[in-house]
Amino acid sequence: MSCDWGTSSFRLRLVKVPGLTILKETVTDRGIAETAQLWNNAGMAEEERLFFYLDIIHAHVHDFEKALGYALSETPMVLSGMASSSIGMIGIPYKQVPFSLDGSDLITKTVTAGEVRKAVVVVSGAATSDDVLRGEETQLVGCSHHNEETGQSLFIFPGTHSIHVVVERNRVVGFKTYMTGEFFKLLSTESILSASVEKGSGLLDEKNKRSFEIGVEESTKTNLLHGSFKVRTNQLFNRLSKNENYYYLSGLLIGTEMKELINTNFKRSVLVTTQRLQPYYEAAIRMLNSDISLEVQDADECLIRGQFQILERAQ
User: Fold this and answer.
1) In a domain, 314, yes or no
2) Second label for 215, Cα 20 to 30 Å away, from 19, 63, 132, 184?
3) pTM value surpassing 0.70
């Protein structure tokens, strides 16, 4: 079984081997942050924390068993994401860079889960001297890799907190985190700009696409704080509709994140993303560096492959 427990979401999948075919899955918005709050409110002893979190997982497994008509207690499980953080089910230290692309030296811990499940393999995150990640290291292991012995490669993981990972000689040598998705949510829902934006039909709409491109262009020539305020003046002066403004803001923030690619010369650039975010990041990257040779890989497929490889080693 594959479990990805992030800060704001929970995803559990039953995966068939060989082939790594998803047989059943469930997704909820009860991420580690909300679960940690529930744990704190419960007032339980620290030694019960692991089982508090496992009970939540087991409730979903039980739903799978009822729907499928057979037991899953002997099915191995690997868990990545924020579950190994200080607010997760069990704290595991970060693996310091560099670390191997195949995940052979990542830190994992196998926890016993009583009679309900024999064991769960939990994957830790990774750290540099001033940055951390949890979850992307597992996705990276599952990416389709070429020989990285010469030059540097860049792997881009869009999300609430986007991660740019640099690989050299088949080892991760560094990465940076960008709060792109979180800034977008805060500005579009909590700030004065919230009255000036409204989600539309996406980049398939030509006006929205052009607004997004204007935002990307603006990111290269203005201060982000000033560019953000233009969301308000765009509406006040009837330059853009609320729908168009939504995509202008998206382009401005993604462009600010991705403009570091201007004039870069990575041997290989890989966008590891969901279908929802792919068109935005791909459009921004190609606008900012038209000479880039960009590969796109599916983030969910990479996650499952990475978890499977890590699970095989742990067993």
Assistant:
1) no
2) 132
3) yes
